[in-house]
Here is the input.
Amino acid sequence: MTTQAWTAQSRATVPAADVHIPFTAPLLAGVRGRRQQRGLEFVLPNPSGGRGTYVVSWPQTAGLAAPTLHDTILAKRLHEMPGLAPAAVRHVARSVAAEGYAGREAAEAANRAQTKIEAETLRLWAMFLLALIQRSEIPVLEQGRILAGLGNAGPGIVTEGFVAGAGRLGWEPAALSDALDQLSAAFLPVAARGRAHQLLGLMEALHPALLSEQAQHAQDASRSPALLARTINSVSHWLGLAAAALDEAVRALADPAALLGRWRTDPAAALGAARHVEETLDGWDRICLLWLDADTLSARLRLLPEIGLLVRLASVPAAAEADAAPAGKGAGAPGQAGACDLAAAQAARPEPEPVRSATTSGLVERNERIRTRELALEHGDG
Amino acid sequence: MADGDRHAADGVRALSKEFRNASDEKILKVTRMIDLLPERGEADALLEPVRARLAALRPARRMNRTRLLFTPFDPVVVSGAAWRPGDLGIPRSLLAPVAALIFGSGDAIPSIPPTLEEGDEAQLTRAGTPLWQAAAACLSTISIPAAWETPDWQKQNGLTVPMVMPLIPVLRLVLDQAVAIRTVPPRQHPGCEPALTALLSEAIRVGPLGWGIMLRLLFDAAAPDQVARLALATARGSRFCTALQAGLDGAIEEMLSRMEAPQPSQAAEQLDAGALSGRLHLIDRIEELRKLENRPVEEQRRIGRLRQGLATENRAMFEQALQARLVELDQPPAGPPAAAMSTETVLAIEAEARQLRAFAVAAAKLGNADEYDRLLEQAAARYARNGGRSGMTRADRMRVTELLVGSEKAIQVLGLA
Here is the structure.
């Protein structure tokens, strides 16, 4: 287990390499996961609410943070994944929600999201292919014949007409299919009315709301103005990064044929702009939706410490943190974490109820409500 | 009293009697209508017999300026008929005349935002701050109007000027300190004890009545054992030590008497969110009272009896509610499995399970923890067994199990560990 103090100065402009995991247990809110050679690791906030994070394996996470059934099933599925990336985690989490483990409403939202995502991915796939055809030197009449011959081709589906068309365009069919599949999936959130635009809108609304709270904060002597100031700074910083990243990705998507051209020489570079958007916005849906869920001033004031914690987790460069871990407390293999660190975390854990307490149950219900909205955001109904 | 007035008063009394036995839904509807009246007048008396139920139901009520003005007094406002001089409370019949006095004083009294909701404590404090400060300043200079000396006024309000006079400085004290009372930091916060001590020191300056009423307000706003300990420490340094200690005894006595008063009757199947919240609050208060130090043996026995009585009542109520609201909902059909259960039904079952679990966890603080666990486990096992036949999905059944027995047990039971 690694413990590291977080400082604003240490926040990198490069987003964290780890991924937000949409768990529903209160103590797992904002948790991030990452795939290491030794297995899956989770970055948890300091259970005492203080500075620092804990990097732990799933069994340790379960011991510390009373995961819900939904979380346990999601963690199991994540362990089966070869690597973690924001979109891939969202896909797996959506399937767990669709099975009903976050409640019926989340299941319905997940199913709606999946349907819309599939339709929108197909639209983007076709847009990329059409751009490639139009940019080619193939006569217009023949272009029409290629399009008409595609049949049922689409993401993950290669037809005879597609193979013939790819050859005419000078592409290996498998390479073109890969390029179209990956580019359409990666740029899905960036497309018009996509998740990234909506999420950026939510972040843009969160910033002035927090500033307005700060202006009135002097009246609440027991609250921490420093925490609020730090949170506002982080939101402002990441809002700038996210807006720039999205702007760049939108400009890239405006020329789909050029993106396909870049893919041929360097697939990672072609996907770079979209991936940067994903990484920059990762985890901010939970933060913004949590804020929106608080419908009274009392609720918003109660939320400020939690929002502060989540913003910290979304901003912390966990990979860099692990690399910088002091000797002897480094990111040891799961299960081999320093016993005294684990003991300290367990001691700091809020009253470990063997069952859900009234408060915990209420928070799970709230987190499931937010999970439903996260799913709605995925298909553009946020 | 004129004939017309007498008939109106009789009418309100009759309605009020009928209203006492009305359903929660009807109470909430009538309350909403009364809140919309520009002048509440006699209509307010309708609410008198159902105030305890209203407190438990906690409806979000639209706030007006008079109600906001007296919000800091909520825990100590008593009906005019029940109030006696020297009681550690404020008679409700005094509120409207004082409000009229303040709002008619000519001083600049701030207005309030139009969309204030009673349930939003922080918003009320923000909106109330300038109002309470202005009202406190107004009360420090105001003189009692001559009209209050008239028999009509005294008959209408059940009060005389000598009864009212000692209350004015107390009103001023509470209004002046309202923000500090409402924002006492949590117990573990380093600012908590200094804030409580400062409030108690302010109250001493107003005399025994102000001290007693402040204690009652602080018992409501903070942990009673902590307030009592700091009150004793503050009183020891005062030359009125004996009177202040008597005031502390009086405030604790008041609190115990209120808790000993019969709770609004609540059928088991009506153990809804409002009633649940009231019960949970009562359980917490009793647990806090047990922490009071150096209290007389008889008082400790009273607390013990209260605790025992509540534990017995809770246990019976829980079992009935579990049976009526969860077990009977899950009667598997005799024939083939039912069609898929609707989302609304599943959500309703989950809400029931969530509430019952929350109640059991809180009620177990007073005892019978194993019994509550056993009953919940039985209900969970029943859902796991029958849920499929009643049209629930596997995930639905797993979730109800989790809501009833907690995630750790559910993970073990369902073999997911």
